[in-house]
Amino acid sequence: MGCGYVHCHETPPVYALIDVNSMYCSCEEAFRPDLRGRPVVVLSNNDGALVAVNRAAKALGVRRGEPYFRCRRLLEQHNVAVFSSNYTLYASFSARFATVVESLAPRTFVYSIDELFADASHMEGVMTPQAFGQLLRAEVLRQTTLTCGVGVAPTKTLAKLCNHAAKTWPATGGVVALSDPVRLKKLMSLVAAGDVWGVGHRTEKGLAAMGIKTALALAEMDIRLARRLYGVTLERTIRELRGEACFALEEGTGAKQQLVVSRSFGARVTQLAQMQQAVTKYATRAGEKLRQENRLAKVVTVFIRSSAYDAGGVPYS
């Protein structure tokens, strides 16, 4: 089936996705100018694992999610700046980041601590989408010291794709704004299907088994087959890749099926009281998140397991 690009609005919408580069690391660097260009990582609660890695640290081969103890020697050898997470600081920077974007776009949607969608259609006739993206990036940098990638496109899924390109290829200058079908097809041919917004790991594996490995191949997938196999959410994602705006500004790719609050302990826990305290803390945090999102839960699950990297003990969960 061919891939067409159509819009379901008389005046096509324009979406911008602004995403801070290595948010946690960038916040730490804001107070330490001497860290510019130096490898920086941020650790999880209890310093168990890496939760943020800047570009210089990635070049050393360390990856987000890696246990700290496993790469500690490598980090020390390369004089990597290591920080314990400071979520109060990151929330403060996130609020400032949102304020800057909101001053330039009348309608925005906070997607996560380091990502915002913005309605850029108000700039039509004032400046090009590329120029607006450059303005957003420059103002965020000037007012917060944070660098970000900006993607601008006719749908939120395509804006995400453009943002991915802006952050992946430095030659873009951190901004990619596309609406031309030929250029969008070219971009989609270079991006893996699993990197498309809303395509999870399980779906990616299923698509790969069908020979659908790029975003372009996904855009050309039969709509009816996609809906039958994966539901309406993937159908809408495909339509968005074709240029049809299906997700409103304040809408995501689907309702959350679960909410997880978990942490790795910095040291072995041997006392029941310690474990009870931790479970109570995380259950409380999960409740706070549910209330913030105005959601309810049908099932509550508590899981505890030993470290997958503990070679000296018998694993259990």
TrEMBL record:
<dbReference type="InterPro" id="IPR043128">
    <property type="entry name" value="Rev_trsase/Diguanyl_cyclase"/>
</dbReference>
<dbReference type="GO" id="GO:0006281">
    <property type="term" value="P:DNA repair"/>
</dbReference>
<dbReference type="InterPro" id="IPR043502">
    <property type="entry name" value="DNA/RNA_pol_sf"/>
</dbReference>
<dbReference type="GO" id="GO:0003684">
    <property type="term" value="F:damaged DNA binding"/>
</dbReference>
<dbReference type="Pfam" id="PF00817">
    <property type="entry name" value="IMS"/>
</dbReference>
<dbReference type="InterPro" id="IPR017961">
    <property type="entry name" value="DNA_pol_Y-fam_little_finger"/>
</dbReference>
<comment type="similarity">
    <text>Belongs to the DNA polymerase type-Y family.</text>
</comment>
<protein>
    <submittedName>
        <fullName>Y-family DNA polymerase</fullName>
    </submittedName>
</protein>
<dbReference type="InterPro" id="IPR001126">
    <property type="entry name" value="UmuC"/>
</dbReference>
<dbReference type="GO" id="GO:0005829">
    <property type="term" value="C:cytosol"/>
</dbReference>
<dbReference type="GO" id="GO:0009432">
    <property type="term" value="P:SOS response"/>
</dbReference>
<feature type="domain" description="UmuC">
    <location>
        <begin position="15"/>
        <end position="200"/>
    </location>
</feature>
<dbReference type="Pfam" id="PF11799">
    <property type="entry name" value="IMS_C"/>
</dbReference>
<dbReference type="InterPro" id="IPR050116">
    <property type="entry name" value="DNA_polymerase-Y"/>
</dbReference>
<dbReference type="GO" id="GO:0042276">
    <property type="term" value="P:error-prone translesion synthesis"/>
</dbReference>
<dbReference type="GO" id="GO:0003887">
    <property type="term" value="F:DNA-directed DNA polymerase activity"/>
</dbReference>
